[in-house]
User: Which sequence fits this backbone?
């Protein structure tokens, strides 16, 4: 007997493939919907928190996410229903984007990909389909799901702290944790079914979030507790320098747009922003 088709999972992949393909063809399309903290916070383009999950860097990037999503998402859809899959997937995309937004709020930063949503679905399946193992393309053997969950959190944190590779480790971590929280809200029975694993994951996750919240610049742990005014002053100076660099880069982009198309090509919002940035630069 043939396996049922996961219509919703395939539909998400189809829409994502079309949007990704359009992004490959049109840089303007990709720039319109990519994750960019400045556009989200300054221009209130909150849709980018979700639309960035429909874009990918290339076909290999898309295929890795597509294979992972279908491998885990189809079982959630078939066993727990389409609403459960949709809430976990899109909630995890938003969760991963929000963590990235916080960590990169002062940076000139862009990101794309469905990895946050995929990681949320993977973590959900670990608890909804407990007792199994996880096998990915880059892992020749299956490892226990509980070990995968712990290693994933630790690896994502290390990747964020040391900026390993061109990978949004923060979106992975945020997506995985939000996916687990949504799964808990929808199916609270997963807690008593795996109490030790659940407590371990939540304790580790809470520790990582507290560290990131108190220390977005990844200073040594001792500095988070405060080692005097000198450390705090240095932190503020680093934040200010990063903010000034980001504003200078933004102003350069606006001036380039003016030089190419004229001042009237700027929207009212962009004109006000250019005036504000010019004033701040003069006051330095």
Assistant:
């Amino acid at each position: 007997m043939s396996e049922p088709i996961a219509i919703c999972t395939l539909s998400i992949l189809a829409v994502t493939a079309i949007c990704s393909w359009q992004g490959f063809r049109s840089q303007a399309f990709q720039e319109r919907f990519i994750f960019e903290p400045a556009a989200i916070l300054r221009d209130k383009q909150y849709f980018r928190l979700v639309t960035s999950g429909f874009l990918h860097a290339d076909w290999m990037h898309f295929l890795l996410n597509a294979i992972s999503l279908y491998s885990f998402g189809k079982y959630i859809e078939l066993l727990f229903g389409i609403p459960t899959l949709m809430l976990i997937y899109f909630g995890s995309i938003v969760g991963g984007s929000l963590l990235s937004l916080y960590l990169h709020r002062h940076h000139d930063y862009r990101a794309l990909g469905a990895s946050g949503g995929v990681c949320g679905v993977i973590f959900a399946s670990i608890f909804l389909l407990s007792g199994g193992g996880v096998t990915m393309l880059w892992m020749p053997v299956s490892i226990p799901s509980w070990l995968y969950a712990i290693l994933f959190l630790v690896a994502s944190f290390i990747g964020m702290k040391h900026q390993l590779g061109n990978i949004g480790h923060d979106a992975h971590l945020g997506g995985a944790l939000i996916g687990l929280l949504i799964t808990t809200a929808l199916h609270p029975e997963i807690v008593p079914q795996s109490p030790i694993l659940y407590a371990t994951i939540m304790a580790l996750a809470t520790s990582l979030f507290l560290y990131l919240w108190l220390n977005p610049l990844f200073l040594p742990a001792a500095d988070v507790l405060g080692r005097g005014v000198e450390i705090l002053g240095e932190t503020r100076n680093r934040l200010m320098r990063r903010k000034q660099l980001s504003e200078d880069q933004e102003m350069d982009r606006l001036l380039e747009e003016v030089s190419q198309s004229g001042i009237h090509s700027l929207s009212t919002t962009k004109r006000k922003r250019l005036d504000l940035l010019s004033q701040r630069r003069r006051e330095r």
Q: What stands out?
A: The chain has a mean pLDDT of 79. The chain has two domains: 7-218, 229-283. The first helix runs from residue 7 to 25. The CA atoms of residues 155 and 169 lie 9 Å apart.
